[in-house]
Each structure stands twice: as C-alpha cells, then as structure tokens.
Amino acid sequence: MDNFQSFVKEANGCCPRCAQRWLPQRAHKERRRESRKTQPQDAATIAGRDRLIAGRPMSERAQGQSSRDLDRHESSARRKTAVLVLNWNNATATLGCLACLQADVGELQAVTIDNGSSDGSPDVIARAYPDVLVVRLPDNEGFARGTNAGLRWVLAHDEYDTVVFLNNDARLSDDDLLRAVDMVRNDRSIGLLTGKILRPDGRLWYGGGRLRRWRGGVNIFGAGRQDYGQCDSARDVTFISLAFAVTRRDVIERVGLLANEYFFGQEEWDYSLRIRKAGYHLRYEPSIGCMHGGDGSHNNSAPEFVYNGYRNKLMFQQRYLPRWAFPVWRMAFVLYARTIQPVTCAWIRGTKLPPSLLRFCALEALRDHAPGGQRRPISWTSGNGQKYSESGRRRCRVAFHELLSSHPCTTPA
C-alpha cells in the first residue's frame, strides 16, 4: 500500500473537491491490484479473463474461428502446398514450368489442369511427370473456370493449407517459392502474395499493381521497363496478377473461387478486390523473383481478345461500382469508344489492330452487355464458331467471329 499512501500525500496538496472525487477511485484500484498479487487464481479464472476483450465476452463465432485456426496451426506437421498450373495446347511450356518444381521438396504437389487441349498435352505431361496430378477438362473453359477446377480439388483434400497460382510459362526457384509460402503462412493478415515478375529479356512484367476502380483498369508499376531496382520496395498493393501468387486455404474458404463470368481477363481484378474487401492485405515482395514469358496462350492484338477484355470490364464495373454510378460510367465509355478510344489504343498502347476494328470490338461488347443483349462469353478456341450464352449456356444465333469476318479490316476464314 505504499503507492496508496503516496496518493494520499499528493491529495493533501489538492483542493478538497478534487481529493474527494478521484482519491476513492484510485484507492479502489490499488486495493484490487494488491489483492490480485496475494490471492491465487485458478485456471478457470485465468481462461475467463483471457476471453474478455475490452470488457466484453468474445462471441461464440469468433471463438469457433479461433479454435479452427488453432487446429490448423497445430496440424502444421502435415501441411502441404498445391501448385496449380493451367495448360492449353502448350505441353512444351508446361513441361518447362513443372521442371522447376521437381526438386526434392516433399510438401509441394503440382496440379496441372488441362483446359480441353487437342494436341495430346495431358498424356505427354502424365508420361513425363507421373507424380504430377493432371485434371482433365472436356472443353476450354477459360482461365477462371479452369483454375476453379484445381481449387475444388485442393478444397477436397484437407492436407493442403496453401495454394500457388502459376502460369505454365512462368519459372521460379524452389527457394523463392518456399519463402513465399512461409510468408503467407506466418502472416495471417496476408491474403495474397506475389513477387517481382520479369520478362526473359530482363524487363519488368510486374513490379506491383494498383486497381483503378472508377476508371476500370490497373496500373502495373514498371511494366515494360528495364529493372534498375525501381520496384525493390516491399509494400501492400491493390492488384496482384495470378501469373504467380500464393494464398492460404482459409482465404479461399472465406472469399470463394474465382468468378466464372470472366472467360479470360479481369478475374484477377475481381479476386484482388474481393480479398481486400474480406479484410486481407495484398503483399508485393520483390525479394521473391519469377520469370514470365507472357501471352503464352493468347494474342493481345487478336480481335476476340480485345472484345472479351471490354466485355469483362463492363461486367466488373457493373458488379462493383455504386448502382447510380454505373450508368454514368457506361455512358462515358460509349463516348470514349466512339471517339478517342481507337486512337489511344493504337498509338499510345501499341495495339496492332486498325482503329475501326478496335471501335467495332468495343461497340460489340457494349451491345452484348446491354439489357436484353446476348451477353455471350467469347471463346476463340472452338472450331465451329458457335458460342455459349451465360443463361443456361445456350448457343447464340450469331457468333462474334462471324460478325468479325464481315468487317472490312478482316478476311473471312
């Protein structure tokens, strides 16, 4: 009670009103503190106190979540990592990617999802790497649906607690891959992690990214520039490319699978935003290096790819913009497509398509996205040219490539 006596001496120098107001409160606190030191506390009392946060009991839902996280942590001795590699008619690139994952690392399991290849890729991969699991899809379902097939396999096996997204034309060392996995496991606030991604010629492919929601696009830091260390600072970002990314099982269980509406492109925007909305961070770690060839399964200047990109952007904006804002944004996009869009894409971004063809792709995407439009997911892999609509996967009457073949800038097949 020495402290209490000192408080009494201090109170003697105060006015009577102040001493009468705060001295009993401090005395009560000191008595409680002294009693805790002298009285033994059993395990039940300590456990009950630990369950109190800010004077309120923890909710049963939070207790259940904490216990589940604890169970996963205690079962760390059997933790494994699934590496998802998507393949479509490119066995050479996929075999090169799998070669960098074949070191003597027991916790890595490569899973190749074949997206309806017609060149015998699944058999070639299975013969070259018998330990690699090959998930065969009957048709080319696109990046999102193909990746979701691998994620469903992972969720069906409890021993996998981390997942790596890796393009088949990407290469990285086992050391960098395992360091990325350890970072995600040790920091539960990270929902998605990636590293510095370089092109084979040494230029940057990804040095961090920012999602621009109102514009409907992303900024890739340092893209196309030589790597001089300008992107060597680790930081949180708002967009991560799934060409190489690492996440945990609990993040997938909370956020869900990739959105099936996007055939190819913009599913990365959607997933990055959903992970951030769930309260996780997107982490960029430049100490982890990856090489990515880029554009291994598509041509950025193909009219079908341009059309699909515009259509996906419209779906993304309609999903995440405020309800009152999307009509305004769509009207601005119509003006952009009819006026300056062909010039900016052809001159500034280096697109090889003629301006009239760029305008045609944008306006077709707007027409298919309009209320009552066909809203067809484009797939440039089918030989018969018949596409499928979102509602019931019904065949569209007029395929995009048939309209494309009648355009003056193209030659019918």
Give the helices and strands, then pairings.
Blueprint: H1 2-12, H2 16-38, H3 43-50, E1 52-53, E2 56-57, H4 60-74, E3 80-87, H5 91-99, E4 108-115, H6 121-128, E5 133-137, H7 142-155, E6 160-167, E7 170-171, H8 174-186, E8 190-198, E9 204-206, E10 209-212, E11 217-220, E12 235-237, E13 244-248, H9 249-255, H10 267-277, E14 281-292, H11 303-320, H12 325-338, H13 341-348, H14 355-369, H15 400-405
Parallel strand pairs: 3-4, 3-6, 4-5, 8-14
Antiparallel strand pairs: 1-2, 6-13, 7-14, 8-9, 10-11, 12-14
Describe the structure.
The model is unreliable at 43-64, 70-77 and 372-403 (pLDDT under 50). With 413 residues, the protein is of the alpha/beta class. It is 44% helix and 18% strand. It has three domains: 1-32; 76-292, Spore Coat Polysaccharide Biosynthesis Protein SpsA, Chain A (Alpha-Beta Complex), CATH 3.90.550; 303-405, no CATH class. α1 packs antiparallel against α2, α11 (303-320) crosses α14 (355-369) and α13 (341-348) packs across α14 (355-369). A hairpin with a 5-residue loop joins β8 and β9 (204-206). It is built from 15 helices and 14 strands. Strands 5-4-3-6-13 form a five-stranded mixed β-sheet, sandwiched between helices. Strands 7, 8, 9, 12 and 14 form a five-stranded mixed β-sheet that branches. A two-stranded antiparallel sheet has the order 1-2. It has helices at residues 2-12, 16-38, 43-50, 60-74, 91-99, 121-128, 142-155, 174-186, 249-255, 267-277, 303-320, 325-338, 341-348, 355-369, 400-405; strands at 52-53, 56-57, 80-87, 108-115, 133-137, 160-167, 170-171, 190-198, 204-206, 209-212, 217-220, 235-237, 244-248, 281-292.
